[in-house]
Each structure stands twice: as structure tokens, then as C-alpha cells.
């Protein structure tokens, strides 16, 4: 796991049981899974919109593609962050996701998808 991801995972765990008024992460944990999932959904939508805006800007060769790409990266970071909060709340973390991705590495995506049925 990257140093940044490891540090963030550790920080999320530290703040999981902290007082709600001590940090945003502690507040999310205190508000519970429904609030956390609401944030994941909100950030998912914002990421999709940013991706679409960037794709359209690239197609039309607009001069603001750098801004659109920056918005996409920013929204994706928000989505990842809130997803990590969700995993932490549910007693999991990025290592579990990375392990699953590693398990799938070298397996055809089509074969993996067919195996789920």
C-alpha cells in the first residue's frame, strides 16, 4: 500500500471512536452508516459528472481541459476518501480491497464476471 494510503487508513482508524466534535471523520462515524453511504453516493455522482465534463472538454478540444481534469481528480479523491471511511466504519480497509484486486490480477475480467453468476 502506498505511504499516503497507509497513513490515511491509520488516521481513519484513530478517528473512528473519537469525539464527534474532534474531526470530520469522527463526525461521520458518529452519524452512522446511512450518512457515510449518503456521502459515498454524493461523491460518486460528482465524480461521474466531473468525468463526463472532462470527456466532453477533451472531445471539443476546449482550452480548460486542465481545469476539468483537476476537477475529476479532486472529485475522485473525495470519493476514495469517503469510501475509505465507509470501509473503516464496517471494520475493513484499503488493504482488503487491494488484496481482492491482487487476487483478480491475471484473471480475465470476462471470466471473473462470469464466475459471479
Report on the structure:
The mean pLDDT is 92. The radius of gyration is 17 Å and the shape is globular. The protein has one domain (3-115): Orthogonal Bundle (Helix Hairpins). The chain is built from six helices and no strands. By secondary structure, it is mostly helical.
- Total helices: the number is 6
Task: Give the CA-based shape.
Answer: globular
CATH class group: Mainly Alpha
- Secondary structure class reads mainly alpha
Number of DSSP E strands: 0
Would you identify the CATH architecture? Answer: Orthogonal Bundle
CATH topology: Helix Hairpins
Give the amount of beta strand, in percent.
under 5%
Termini separation (Å)? Answer: 30 Å
Low-confidence regions: none
Average pLDDT works out at 92
CATH superfamily: MazG-like
Share of residues in helices: over 70%
Order of helices and strands: HHHHHH
Largest sheet: none
Please give the domain count.
1
Overall radius of gyration: 17 Å
